């Protein structure tokens, strides 16, 4: 199973305050443990919402609003994409992440092709597999 671990934004991350050497060192060690365990597929920090945009859709059209956005629980400061055998295993690993001071993460299972059932026709499944292979080659 694949899980996205969403790191919630904070006042500091939204102000563009970058982590110090101590946290970067601890995070590097934690990421290395995830990689060595064969769990980590990706992990990145994100710039503050002041450098982002949101696109809202209505009537078949998209309209964009540029940040910054108010600090709410839906803002994201970073993420990991990990593989784990269960939600419990993902939670166990992420409890070890070197955060403090009220930091919060959210763990969500990534939808797999099997989750779509019959709606994913053989043609759509072939397209999905072809696109994934194409992305993997880049």
Q: How would you describe this structure to a colleague?
A:
The chain is α+β, with helices and mostly antiparallel strands and 138 residues long. It is 32% helix and 28% strand. The chain has 4 helices and 6 strands. It has helices at 11-14, 21-36, 87-94, 122-137, and strands at residues 2-8, 40-45, 53-58, 61-66, 76-83, 105-109. The chain has a 4-stranded antiparallel beta sheet with strand order 2-5-1-6, covered by helices on one side. Strand 3 (53-58) and strand 4 form a beta hairpin. The longest helix is centred in the first third of the chain and has 16 residues, at 21-36. The radius of gyration is 18 Å and the shape is globular. The two termini are 23 Å apart. The model has no long low-confidence stretch (mean pLDDT 95).
Strand order of the largest sheet: 2-5-1-6
Intertermini distance: 23 Å
Given helix and strand content, the structural type is alpha+beta
**What's the rounded overall pLDDT mean?**
95
How big is the Rg? Answer: 18 Å
The number of helices is 4
Helical coverage, percent range = 25-40%
Secondary-structure element series: EHHEEEEHEH
Strand content: 25-35%
- Which segments are poorly predicted (pLDDT under 50) over 5 or more consecutive residues? none
The total strand number stands at 6
Main beta sheet: 4 strands, antiparallel
Shape estimate = globular
């Amino acid at each position: 199973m694949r899980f996205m671990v969403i790191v919630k934004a904070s006042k500091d991350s939204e102000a563009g305050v970058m982590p110090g050497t101590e946290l970067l060192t601890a995070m590097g060690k934690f990421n290395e443990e995830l990689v060595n365990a064969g769990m980590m597929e990706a992990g990145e920090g994100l710039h503050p919402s002041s450098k982002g945009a949101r696109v809202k859709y209505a009537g078949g059209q998209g309209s964009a609003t540029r940040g910054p956005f108010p600090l709410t629980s839906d803002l994201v400061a970073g993420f990991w994409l990990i593989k784990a055998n269960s939600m419990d295993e993902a939670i166990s690993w992420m409890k070890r992440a070197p955060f403090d001071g009220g930091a919060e993460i959210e763990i969500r299972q990534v939808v797999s092709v099997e989750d779509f059932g019959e709606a994913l026709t053989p043609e759509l499944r072939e397209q999905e597999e072809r696109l994934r292979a194409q992305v993997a080659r880049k």
